[in-house]
Amino acid sequence: MYTAQYHPVADEPQVIVTGAYDHSVRLWDAESGKELGKLGKIPHHRSHVNTSCFSNDGTRLVTGDGRGVVNIWRLETGRQPSDPSAWHLARFIDDADLRGKPAGSEPCRAPTIRKTR
Predict the structure, then answer these.
(1) Do 50 and 65 touch, CB atoms closer than 8 A?
(2) Torsion over CA: 77, 81, 86, 89 (sign)
(3) What is the pLDDT along the chain (117 residues), one digit of tens a residue?
(4) I want to staple 84 with a disulfide (CB 3.0 to 4.6 A). Which of 2, 31, 37, 104 is the partner?
């Protein structure tokens, strides 16, 4: 396991997400330690998942891997965050500027915006 995060609002059960060497993202019941399941029916990462972050309201999850691929997961409205089938891949980002750079390997920077005529 390379990353673990508590879901910010789930409380019954309290949910943890992990990213691992096998390219998977898993949900866990924090109290029992029981695996609730993997996100996605097929692996969406191409390398070990080494970073994860929930949005403040818990409806989005961002995961990143060792090759620079970033996935944004969306929780279906009205569904429980503890249900792996309630999470859907909203966006798959494999940008040439990120390729080969492990997620979390460089500091975050605000994008530079240039005005053109």
Answers:
(1) yes
(2) positive
(3) 889 999 999 989 999 999 998 999 999 999 999 999 999 876 688 888 989 999 999 999 999 888 888 889 999 999 999 999 999 999 888 766 666 655 554 444 433 334 444
(4) 37
Is 88 contained in some domain? Answer: yes
Q: Identify the three-state secondary structure at position 85.
A: helix
pTM here is 0.79
% helix / strand / coil in the chain, to the nearest 5? 5, 35, 60
- State the residue range of the domain holding 53: 3-93
Q: Under DSSP, is residue 86 helix (H, G, I), strand (E, B) or coil?
A: helix
Count the residues in the chain: 117
Placement of tokens 């053109």 in the chain: 116
The answer to whether position 67 is within a domain reads yes
Q: Which CATH number is 61's domain given?
A: 2.40.10.480
The answer to whether residue 41 sits within a structural domain is yes
CA angle 72-76-81, nearest 5°?
80
